[in-house]
């Protein structure tokens, strides 16, 4: 099994689309080495702009570039690009429905040692709440790479969430379609909807549950907005039991999106697994995942409990 | 008749349009619209800006970003006069379905370069547009009109820093310095001075002029267009509510539209050139 960080895919794909389209410009806020936009700077120094530690202005500048016919890609840590620049993303980018791609790297608690100040637990909720914004949380390196390539031809604003930590590369390297979810493992006992590096963890939990006779269906919901209503509906209808798993607060993220949709279309219990309205803290990624319940054992246990309860 | 009497005449007519628009809307920002108007008239009718009303998206046009979006009645009146849309549309200001939104909306109205209203947003977009001109090798200029109170927003200084860093000599910032904001005098609410020193320290070639004197406006804007070294800032000293005696320098008229009798009185004053 190969392990790679999704942020690496951002850097690589950015260079690729820079070659395809000379209207692509990249912006960063002093974190280009970490977000991997520095790869683009090396290749296209005239189309890269560091805006310094000023995320709000970076978002506004991106809007101005988009209004002038360029295709800006702006990156920073997820916690800063969505939080510090929120108001500018709202008024200058989303309100004008501009094609600006925002990449938030270092999302969730897998940031690790930097601690709670740098761990974004609410970025999906923030971005999802804005009209016109698309929210994409790819499951692995391959899907991130494809999502960035595909973002070149999307309309309007896009938020793509990547991670610092390496995670298994397991998705097919095939074109990404926004608004499409993929059933990555079929099952009939219950559905586990997951996003980001949690998808692989979901598959591992499904393996564990198999022994106990639970056939878990796992769906990769990398497109949180727009949501693939059909795939989600069909899976929930088939299994009748729904779980969600995300490296994000259970308030406003993937689980909320699924629950909001299903309450209208298919009233059903939705059990959300994620961060329980808490901030993260310092520690290694593995220690943090243990503490906050992001291990295959803990996830399998919770699902088993609920199914038996 | 003075050298700029034609611009003064246009401004007098547009002040009347602004007041009628606001009166019909029943709400909106009178004071700032009247203070900023001469700046906009100088830009659009004083031979400063290149634009084609019949082709609003002409790629070589100069851009105007009204960062103090609440003063949009003035911009709407100017754009109608310039031929971007029919003057009758002015009377739909702030009404449901009108492209003349309470704050400028680039998606709804031709001639609006950027949606603004939440203060500080315009200048960052203007910096982006000026930066784009460098990437695209275009010679257009970007004019950003800001309020003085607006300068209290932190993003403004982030944007100024970037403008200097990238040597955006194609960016001209004009500050409608009327000295008042909603809660009172700017320098009592939150002091922005010494403003000229601050702008110069941020790398702007900075001018301080009378914002209702056309000779000053035209001369300074012409000089600013020729600057190839650094961004330019023009502190235009204006009077909030300029042109209407009972609104002039009155903070009460920041966000209030004239009632019928006030409108009548104001129009009479403007007709008589009080």
From TrEMBL, chain A:
Record-listed E.C. numbers: 2.2.1.7
The organism's place on the tree of life at top rank: Bacteria
SUPFAM superfamilies: Thiamin diphosphate-binding fold (THDP-binding) (SSF52518), TK C-terminal domain-like (SSF52922)
Keywords: Thiamine pyrophosphate, Transferase
Residues of the Transketolase-like pyrimidine-binding domain: 4-169
SMART domains per UniProt: Transket_pyr (SM00861)
GO molecular function annotation: 1-deoxy-D-xylulose-5-phosphate synthase activity
InterPro entries per the UniProt record, alphabetical: PDH/Transketolase (IPR051157), THDP-binding (IPR029061), Transketo_C/PFOR_II (IPR009014), Transketolase-like_Pyr-bd (IPR005475), Transketolase_C (IPR033248)
Known cofactor(s): thiamine diphosphate
Pfam family, one: Transket_pyr
Similarity comment: Belongs to the transketolase family.
Name listed for the protein in its UniProt record: 1-deoxy-D-xylulose-5-phosphate synthase
Originating organism: Hippea maritima (strain ATCC 700847 / DSM 10411 / MH2)
From TrEMBL, chain B:
Organism: Hippea maritima (strain ATCC 700847 / DSM 10411 / MH2)
PANTHER family tied to this protein: TRANSKETOLASE N-TERMINAL SECTION-RELATED
Domain Transketolase N-terminal: 20-267
Family to which this protein belongs: Belongs to the transketolase family.
InterPro entries: THDP-binding (IPR029061), Transketolase_N (IPR005474)
Needed cofactors: thiamine diphosphate
One Gene Ontology term of the molecular function aspect: transketolase activity
EC number of the protein: 2.2.1.1
Keywords: Thiamine pyrophosphate, Transferase
Descriptive protein name: Transketolase
Top-level taxon: Bacteria
Annotated Pfam families: Transketolase_N (PF00456)
